[in-house]
Amino acid sequence: MLPPPGSQPLPPFSPAFFAAGGNAGPKSPPLYPGADPNVIAVTATDVDDKLFTGANRGRYISVSAPGVDILVPAPEGDYQITTGTSVAAAEVSGIVALLLERNPS
Known about the structure:
- This protein has one helix at 85-102, and strands at 18-20, 40-45, 61-66, 70-74, 78-82.
- By secondary structure, it is of the alpha/beta class.
- It has one domain (18-102).
- Strands 1-2-3 form a three-stranded parallel β-sheet, covered by helices on one side.
- The radius of gyration is 17 Å and the shape is globular.
- The relative contact order is 0.19.
């Protein structure tokens, strides 16, 4: 939402970019965009907080979130169970958005 006319300008904003770390397995080289140094790469964990066996590993991975056997929306108003670092990245970006909404500074 833009400030009303005549109010103070918006403060400078540094966007955060989140991306899946990759599902090519522990021996995979870093994958992009997650491996880009300007991106926060997210990996997936299971119900026991163990790394998803198919997830990439490496120093470029910054954070983890649940990403194994996650219920997600599917076409035609349905739902499905899915696994992967993309699901985890979506969760992290959503949580960060909620935190920023609550405390924008």
